[in-house]
Structures are given as C-alpha cells and as structure tokens.
Insulinase family protein
Amino acid sequence: MKHALLFCGVLACAGALAQTSGTGAIPAAAASEPVATTASGAQQFALSNGMQLVVQPDHRAPTAVQMLWVRVGSMDEVNGRTGLAHMLEHMMFKGSASLGPGEFSRRVARLGGRENAFTTRDYTGYFQQIPAGRLKDVMQLEADRFAHNQWPDEEFRKELEVVKEERRMRTDDQPRAALMEQLNAATFMASPYHHPVVGWMSDLHSMQPEDARAFYRQWYVPGNAALVVAGDVQPQQVLAWAEEIYGKLPSAALPERKPQTEPEQRGLRRVSLKAPAEQAYVALAFRIPGMQRLAQLQPEDKDALSLLVLSAVLSGYDGARLDRELTQGPQRVADSAAAHASIFGRGPATFMLTGVPASGQSPEDVEQALRASVARVAREGVSAQELARVKAQWAASTIYARDSLMGQAMDLGSNWVQGLPLDADDRLLALLQDVAPADVQAVARRYFGDDQLTVGTLLPQALPEGAKARAPAAGADDGVMR
C-alpha cells in the first residue's frame, strides 16, 4: 500500500520568513465555526473559495503534517490519455511562477521537513512533515505550486522518461503486477478502473506537455481540494493562515463528471499471463457491492460491511482461515494466500482472493482451494468467537494507527476525498460490532458464484539464463508514489 498561492513574491523570499508558532493574534475575519467536528478533536472548515480545511490538533510532539488532497485520479482520465493524473503529480515538483524545478523539495528540506506525493485511482495527495513552527512556510510553498504550477516542455519530456521507466520496473518487469493490471482491465469494462494508475505505455509514448497542463487546469481548483493539517497546532490559527494563503485563490468550475457505471457481469472471465517467474500466482476478483453510506444503511451497505468482515475472517490475522486451510500441514496447497475486500472508493468494489501454489501444486489447485474456503463459510458459517477476535484486532489496528500524525492525516484526507464523514473509522468500528455470524454466512453464499468472477493466472516461464527472479511487486494497481 497510493493530492497557490496568492503572493508569488512572498515565496521568492520564503527563506527569509521568520519562524511561526501556534500562538498569536487571529484575524477576526478568519474566525469561523467548523462545518464538522469529531470526537478526536478534528474540525472541518470551508474556506471562502470552496476549498476544505481539516485540522486535527495533537500536541504530543512539536511537529505537524500538511496534506493537500485533490479529488482526481486515474478514474478521471479518458482513453488515449491515461497516466495523466500520475504524470501531473510528478510535474508538481517541477516548478511554479517563483520556483524552479526541484526547488520545492529543497526548500522543504531546509525547513527541516520531508515530503512526497502519491496518486491512486480516486485521488492525488501531497504531504510534508515539518516542525510545527514552520507550518505557515510550507503552506505558502504548497499553495504556490497548487495555483501556479508551470515548467518548460523539456522538463516534462525528461520526467516522462522517468515515469516510463517507473512503469517498466514496477509493472512490465514484475509478473504479478503485470497480471493484476490485466485482471483489472478484464474485470472493469466501462468503469475507468479499467486503466492502470501509471497509464498504458502507448499513452505515455504519445503524451504531450499540453495534455498535462490541460488536466491541471481542469482539476486543480479549490473546490476540488482539501487541506489537512495534523499536529501541534491551534485550529483557529491554522484556519486564519489557510484563509490568508489558500482562501484567496480564485475558484473555478469543475468539469462535469459523467457516470460510468459498470454493466452487470453475466459469466466467468479468465485472463492468463506468461512471464519469466519462479512461481505461479492466482487472483480471483469477485464483483461485490461497495459501501455507499455510514448512516441509514441500505441492504447493500450491510452486505459490504459483512464482506469486509469475511475478508478478515479469511486472512485478517496470522493463523486465519486461509493460513490454516491452505498453507499449513503436510497437504498444504499454497505458500501464501490472502483475501481483501475493497468496499470504499469512487468506483466499483471487488473482493479479491489470491494465492501462490506450493511445490507440486497447480494454479488450478489453489483456485479450487480458495473457493472451497469461502464455500465452507457459506455452508458452515463462522463462530461468534471468531468474529470477536476479528473485531478486536480491527479496533486495535485502528487505534494504533492514530499514534502517527501521518496516519491521522491520511485517514482524515482519504475520508474526505471519498465523500465519507471525517469520523468514518469510528463509525465503521461501531457498525462492525453489529455484523453477526449469520450476516457473514449470508454474503459468502450470495457473492461468490461464477457470474461475478474474473480469474487471473500467472503462468511462469523459464528465466533467461543467468537472470535472477525479481521480488514480487504489490498485487493490485491501487496507487503509485513518486
């Protein structure tokens, strides 16, 4: 496991700015009541130009995280222009009206911070972790490139070659990643989830500088973005700075997002990939309902929750069902096996089962064993004790994630960008407590037939003489980090 400022002159002398702190007078014009709050103290504000601000105070250490989330990813691309969201993420580091290529990163480093960015199907994110006293400085830097990103054509062409090589290393030369790319393309026909986040190589070959500039003008507008700040900060002071720095950026209309609904699947699909590899690999993608609401649940929402619990029952902890049934004992079928339910997102949802055949076992053996594990749940159900363990581990992992400022900012930003309430994690935990064994058994019976299934199989070929097998890459094309 994956998103402008006002005064360019201010940026020109950013290095000379005095250190800022979380105290001081707050302009009255900036004071505002939050539009949403959480039990953890997070507050959401709407800036005057439509940009959203989320602030999570955490005073345990004198540091802060700023994240800028833009609700645009590979699902907003069109045929012939895939990879633009990710390419633009790279170009955001290549300059603005006041900063040259690479200067943004150098200035963040001089402020004592670290930074990076990521692109997924649903969104793009940019982040900096810095001493809390330098927060206003990085707000100015981030706002400048958000509003005034610009670069020479030659800089674009050089970076495009970097992205092509990234695709070669992470997808083309990684058999499992290449298989997952083909599996996604076969699973999704109308949905733009069909496209890889990094883009098809043919589209990268034909990509032009103006393609990225046009994409930037379309989607990088205040009403399509949220600023998330977590750390040793005062919400009203952050709001005042955000209004001063980000709130003055001109608003602009967003393009119309037309629905691209995936048609009903009416039969099993299969894809296979022959590639040099030491081991085969099997991935089963089942179409399932996604989670649309965290209040006033509809039947499909309850099913999505139950499928999430089923994935944890199968492989949510060491020694879970897939481990016990497929990878242990003298008759083991697989070296590894896993389940994952992707129920949140702007596009369609899937339930994935994956496995690596053990020595002497075939991909077909693993496929049958994976489906047999789900069929066993459908037939015999799960115990209350099993669900209690899953729920306890889920609660613990959610709480532990809050130890990290970056984890808090990631949760808040991803909730906003997917249209969920800020406290979606707490609401999800509460809802999971109501998932009963009968609910898990019911979804195991309902969603795992052939008609909603696409199977991908990696067929290993002999490695070239003298070549060493690469370490397997991540399975799904869910996101790309710079």
